[in-house]
Amino acid sequence: MPSTKSAKSRLKKLLLITGSILIVIPLIIILCISPLTKYLVEKYSIKYTGRQVRMDWAYVNPFTGYVYFKNLKINECESDSIFISANGASATFSLLKLFSRTCEITQLTLDQPNSIIVQSQNGVNFSDLTKRFRHKDTIEVKTPFHVDVLNIKIINGVLRYRDNRIPINYSVVHLDIESPGLAWNMDTLAAKVSLLSGNGAGGIKGHITINLKNLDYKLDAVISKLELKFFEQYFKVISNYGSFRANLDADIEAAGSFKDAEDMDAKGLIVISDFHFGENTEKDFASFEKFTLRVKALNPKNKEYLLDSVSLSRPYFKFERYDYLDNVERMFEKGKEGINQSAGQFNLIVAIGNYIKALSENFFRSDYTVTHLAISNGDFQYNDFSLNEKFSIAANPVFIKADSIKKTNSRVNISFSTGVKPYGSGTINLSINPRDSSDFDMNYNLKKLPVAIFNPYLIAYTSFPLDMGTLELNGNWKVRSGIIQSNNHLLVIDPRVGERVKNKNNHRLPMRLAMYLVKEEGNVIDYQIPITGNLKNPTFHMGDVILDIIRNIFVKPATTIYRNEVKNREEDIEHSMTLNWETCKSSLSSHQERFLNKMEKFLQENPASSVTISPEEYDAKEKEGILFFEAKKKYYLSINHEKAQSLSNSDSEYVDEMSIKDTLFIRYLNKHLTHSLEFTIQDKCSSLVGSGLVNTRFSQLCKNRKSSFLSHFTNNEIARKITFNPTQNDIPYNGFSYYKITYKGKLPDYLVKAYAEMNKLNNKSPREKYSKERKKII
User: Fold this and answer.
1) Can you tell me the distance from the alpha carbon of 485 to that of 41, in angstroms, rounded to the nearest whole number?
2) DSSP conformational letter for 387
3) Which partner for 59 in 68, 158, 589, 745 could form a disulfide, CB atoms 3.0-4.6 Å apart?
4) DSSP character for 748?
């Protein structure tokens, strides 16, 4: 019995010792091999990788094949800068497969990795690794060694990209990647990706599958409110200056090949919103509120473009001409040179542009459908600063609409409508053959456009403005195979030449003689101008114009009395209802003084009557004139070494007539520039003079005009019958500042008589023909 107990005790002790050995020895091995692994990795990392690898501690389990590195850090090549770091890196190896010459990592995880990719003239900062581990020609072995990396995870990573050549700085944060990995005998790598932008708001989620041999891909991605501000860095390579921002939302499914841009089959939704591009954050050249592209099917290789809708809301574009180049050329003055300089390096904007070009190259030769096309509330502005005064016109609001644009349709109808700022409107209706752009029908109509808006050009080329007149232009075009048949009707109602504007830079043409020859007896310019030929070489038929000129030479002398009567009645009405001011002047003409004396007499004779004056100041033009004068005055005083107090009337007249295009004056302005982005004479003068002085002078001008007007009413009783409304700063229809005169009570007899006589004249030939057009203008 004792021997049995002893045997059991010895067995129990043996099992305990054996178990302890089985536990302790592996534990000892693990405890020894983990620091040994850390030591060996850190010691030989430079020898085998060319980079220093460091970590806080390592855990290696040789029995399960599990490896973990805490706070892993890998330096740049021959540098103490960090290339990649991770809070933790773990991997599990399949030990059994090592015996079959296969290194299989069944699980690879990077926890909070932080890495930077740097592009320089010498290449990327990991090119040394690719060279070191590149496959070399070796003697073929019967049983090659294979590597599998499976179940890859990147958790909450940060990836930064820097291109020192441009320079570009971009980063993504909260980078999460899950992939089943890649075995040695597999060609396809798949991954689920999620990330947020490190350069603003927004992020991307999606799946991507890539065939590493033929570079075929398949992806679906959702982009949410991604800020595209980082594009600005690429713009700086191809432009001299500029500011850019936009947001991107998208939901895309696509399959294709990275080798060929046209080899793609895609569908989905792309929305770009809050787009702004311009000189700086405050001054846009182009912008829009939202661009939406909804694609049913896009397959350039099969020539299939099926677009459900294309819409653009509130687009804005401003084009400006300067003495040298325009705003687009100024921004991209290096143009192709800048793009060519970046040809040896990656530029995202150029790459996207080339990609879109490749996708759309065969659009019109393909089977295409655009179910709905719309542009709404557009604003397109044109400013010309190359003249002696600024010319400005805008199409606003612009609406373009087209439905069912299909190549299979016999015709596609497109409608265009716009307002014209400051006055006018226009419409275009186009019916086009979608298979042949040289086959279309078009009718257009531009109406209620004041000719005074073109005064900057008229003054520059003739020295004479037009202070009255309304332009209308309409026509119908029928074009087949590029051959034009069209009728175009030009009508200018009641044009009138104003007083000559004296300036050394203005050309002078006999405008009064020209108007005499082209105007008809009804005080209109009315021409039919057919256009024939082809689109590349159209022919304008001016027969109607020539016949009218010849006719006027012989017919108009006989109608001189009639035309003078019309002119006198028009002036009586106009001078009774408005008082026009010469730009930047506060003095009255002798004719205006006689009219005010007549008004004073009328108010004396009619105690119950009164007058309300509504000042309409063309503040933009007046301030521009003041700005030019003050800048030229500074220049004049500077070159003559005089003080402002010594400026005589003749000096002021000389300064007023001095050209703003004078080379010595421009050289003087350039010496006083505050920054390099002042391209217009207006900006340069403002830099010299300052807006404060201009505003002061304009305010004083308005006061002087009021004083000059009231000075003719010396009787206080009469003066109290004149009420001034607050000044309105706007663009007057006739292009000049004026006082609008409204009578309360009895109207002056001379005004009633003028109206009555004018109505009679309007209802008789030849003015009767255009009575409807005149009523539309009012």
Assistant:
1) 84
2) S
3) 68
4) P
Owner of token pair 């209620």? 448
Among 228, 233, 220, 219, which residue's Cα sits nearest to residue 272? Answer: 228
Q: Note the pLDDT tens digit of each residue in 734-772.
A: 889 999 999 998 888 888 887 787 777 777 777 767 777
Tokens of 41: 């990795």
Q: How much is the pTM?
A: 0.85
pLDDT (tens digit per residue) in 181-217: 988 888 899 999 999 999 889 999 999 999 988 999 9
SS3 352: helix
In a domain, 272, yes or no: no
CA-to-CA distance for 747 and 602, rounded, in angstroms? 9
> What are the DSSP calls for 359-385, one per residue?
HHTTGGGSEEEEEEEEEEEEEEEEEE-
Within a domain: 667: yes
pLDDT of residue 145: 76
**H, E, C per residue of 575-594:** HHHEEECCCCCCCCCHHHHH
Bond prior to 766 in cis (omega within 30° of 0): yes
Residue 170 corresponds to which tokens in the numbers above? 């971009």
Residue 338 has pLDDT above 70, yes or no: no
For 633, the domain range is 581-746
In this model, does residue 336 exceed pLDDT 50?
A: no
Contact 600, 712 (CB under 8 A): yes
Neighbours of 595 (CB within 10 A): 20
- Residue 706 CA: distances (Å) to CA of 122, 498, 502, 546: 73, 23, 25, 47
How many angstroms separate the CA atoms of 132 and 214, rounded?
25
**Do 242 and 213 meet the contact criterion of CB atoms below 8 Å apart?**
no
pLDDT digits (tens, 9 = 90+) for 671-721: 888 777 888 999 999 999 999 999 999 999 999 999 999 988 888 888 889
Cα gap 176→159, rounded to integer Å: 11
Give the Å distances, CA to CA, from 580 to 443, 546, 586, 737, 771. Answer: 38, 35, 10, 6, 25
pLDDT at 135: 55
**Contact between 449 and 471 (Cβ < 8 Å):** yes
Supply 647's token pair.
């400026």
pLDDT at 439: 92
Distances (CA, A) of 488 to 442, 482, 542: 11, 18, 11
Rounded to whole angstroms, the Cα distance separating 381 from 390 reads 13
| CA–CA dist 621, 541 (Å, integer) | 37
Nearest to 625 by CA among 567, 682, 556, 707: 682
Q: Six-digit token pair at 752?
A: 């009633």
Do the domain assignments include residue 220?
Answer: no
The predicted model gives 286-308 an average pLDDT of 92
**Other CB atoms within 10 A of residue 397 CB:** 15
Q: CA dihedral defined by 667, 673, 677, 683, rounded to 10 degrees?
A: -80
Instruction: With respect to residue 297, please indicate whether it lies within any of the assigned structural domains.
Output: no
Confidence of residue 343 (pLDDT cuts 50, 70, 90): very low
Per-residue pLDDT tens for 213-260?
899 999 999 999 999 988 888 888 888 888 899 999 999 999 999 888
Query: Which is nearest to 639 in space by CA: 664, 660, 610, 621?
Result: 664
pLDDT of residue 414: 94
- For residue 729, pLDDT over 70 is answered with yes
Instruction: Please give the torsion angle defined by the CA atoms of residues 567, 570, 575 and 580, in that order, rounded to the nearest 10 degrees.
Output: -80
The runs of H, that is alpha helices, within 469-542 are 511-518
C-alpha neighbours within 13 Å on the C-beta side of residue 416: 15
In this structure, the number of other CB atoms found within 10 A of the CB of residue 327 comes to: 20
Q: Say what the alpha-carbon torsion angle 483, 487, 488, 493 is, to the nearest 10 degrees.
A: 180
| Per-residue three-class SS string for 659-709 | CCCCHHHHHHHHCCCCCCCCCCHHHHHHHHHCHHHHHHHHHHHHHHHHHHH
In this predicted model, what pLDDT tens digit does every residue of 110-147 receive, in sequence order? 999 999 999 888 888 888 887 876 655 544 555 677 88
